[in-house]
Write a structure and sequence with these properties.
The protein contains 20 helices and no strands. The chain is mainly alpha-helical.
């Protein structure tokens, strides 16, 4: 496995790839492509801080507010697999640049949106642009780096994504509080514009181009089936809680497995006929990829919901402002950053079991938060939360930093984009499922209580689901083969 033997983490290149390898990466390649990862993840979290001011300024309805949040995630999840495959076929750097350009334009659109409906449309455009840009980052890492450099690059990817998630709320709170040029909440979107322009200028010079070799073609039917299936899963999960689970949500959820099964059958038939499926079934014959993807689903189902219920508890239970609640996330970030910087040494000692140990550390952090919230309720000192947040952040780092490396170890470079798209999609779908399930528990307990004190009960009730999810990550890691098993597979 990647973390136990970096040399064995590098995928075995096909004869064609060996004859036509991608150019060597520039020293600035990794920082530039990780800009894409940072802004994609940041825009998942930063918008939550901007919602109250946005709703007041644009006179947005509750439905519009929901789609400002959900529209981005929905478009992103639905387009990831297709975006990854487009990179394989037409060039990963090219698709990365197209995604950055569209993301920059849509961020400017969102920042200057004159109405709620235009902001919703801009957020959907941001999600589609992210789906083009995001899979290329992991794919470029997978084919441009080898051996120890590849392991370091994957760890940097996990660190970047974690920092954007952990500090997203704080960054948003600071931007809104600063009220630059009187723009208020709009700076949460406009901050992407100079970052995107810098990436567009630098990426053509420092990011090597690569693509799948051969005469592969697009799979339009597969693109429609996978997109429709993912929308049928994510849309009702994103909207069902707020809408009261109307009939359409259940019909959509019932249609989702049918669409995804039809997609799987269609992909198998294309592969058997020697044609070019969107997702080659051969990817799932590799146990490290299959269980790596499963681990990502379970992990992100817990983490996405954890950030949601913690933000609700801090702002609506404890009555903190967006900036104050963002500052409470700092201990989480400190724990995450401290352990991430030691990720290589931890990985050298623990190998793939780094993920399992991280999940157990995360469970300990959740247990500490459970005890702290029971102690302070909604009127105690927030300092009691610091130990649990710090430990929890350390556990997150031990899972997030190596997860992509473990899941993608040994993936054929020809399918790097598609594999990255599948892994990213699994993370997004896991997050949507987790938010829906944990949200049901949170709001059910909240509805049984009275006043702000109910938020403490709702948060601790959520931990009864979050802790088992963390333990499930530790269990799934045991099914991922070690380096000897992987090399003989």
């Amino acid at each position: 496995m990647a973390l136990e033997s970096p040399r064995e983490a590098a995928p075995k290149k096909t004869a064609t790839e060996q004859r036509q390898p991608p150019s060597a990466p520039h020293w600035a390649t990794l920082p530039i492509i990780l800009i894409g990862t940072f802004v994609i993840t940041l825009d998942v979290f930063i918008v939550n801080v901007a919602i109250p001011a946005t709703q007041q300024d644009l006179h947005a309805s509750q439905s519009a507010v929901e789609f400002i949040v959900a529209g981005y995630a929905l478009a992103y999840a639905a387009g990831l697999v297709t975006g990854g495959r487009l990179g394989d076929l037409y060039g990963r750097r090219r698709l990365f640049l197209v995604g950055v350009a569209l993301f920059t334009l849509s961020s400017a659109w969102a920042g200057f949106a004159p109405s709620a409906s235009q902001l919703v449309a801009a957020r959907i455009a941001q999600g589609l642009a992210s789906a083009l840009m995001g899979p290329q980052v992991l794919a470029i890492i997978g084919v441009a780096y080898d051996g120890p450099a590849r392991v370091r690059a994957f760890n940097a990817f996990g660190l970047t994504m974690g920092l954007a998630g952990v500090f997203g709320q704080l960054i948003g709170g600071v931007l809104i509080h600063a009220d630059i040029a009187g723009l208020g909440w709009r700076t949460c979107f406009l901050v992407n514009v100079p970052v995107g322009i810098a990436a567009l200028v630098l990426a053509p010079r420092v990011v090597p181009e690569s693509r799948a070799q051969g005469r592969a073609r697009l799979d339009p039917l597969g693109m429609v089936l996978i997109s429709a299936g993912l929308v049928a899963v994510v849309l009702p999960l994103a909207e069902g809680q707020q809408e009261g689970w109307p009939m359409w949500t259940w019909l959509s959820l019932a249609a989702a497995p049918v669409l995804l099964v039809v997609f799987a059958v269609q992909q198998r038939r294309l592969a058997a006929a020697g044609r070019s499926p969107l997702v080659d079934p051969a990817l799932f014959r590799q146990r490290s990829f299959t269980f790596g993807v499963s681990t990502a689903v379970v992990y992100y189902s817990g983490m996405a919901s954890f950030f949601l219920v913690l933000a609700l508890y801090l702002q609506q239970g404890l009555g903190l402002t967006a900036l104050e609640s963002g500052l409470v996330f700092l201990p989480l970030g400190v724990g995450f950053l401290t352990v991430s910087l030691s990720a290589r040494r931890i990985a050298a000692a623990l190998g793939r079991q780094t993920l399992a140990v991280g999940a157990l550390v995360l469970t300990a952090g959740l247990a500490a938060l459970f005890g702290a919230v029971q102690h302070i309720g909604t009127d105690g000192a927030v300092g009691w939360l610091v130990p649990g947040l710090t430990v929890g952040g350390a556990g997150m780092a031990m899972v997030m930093a190596p997860l992509a490396s473990v899941a993608l170890a040994g993936t054929d470079p020809r399918y790097a984009g598609a594999a990255s798209g599948v892994l990213s999609t699994a993370s997004q779908v896991g997050g949507a499922v987790g938010v829906a399930v944990v949200g049901v528990v949170f709001y059910h307990v909240l509805g049984q209580g009275t006043g702000t004190s109910a938020y403490a009960d709702a948060f601790t009730a959520s931990i009864y689901l979050l802790a088992p999810l963390a333990l499930a990550v530790a269990a799934l890691v045991q099914f991922i083969p070690g380096p000897k098993a992987a090399s003989s597979a």
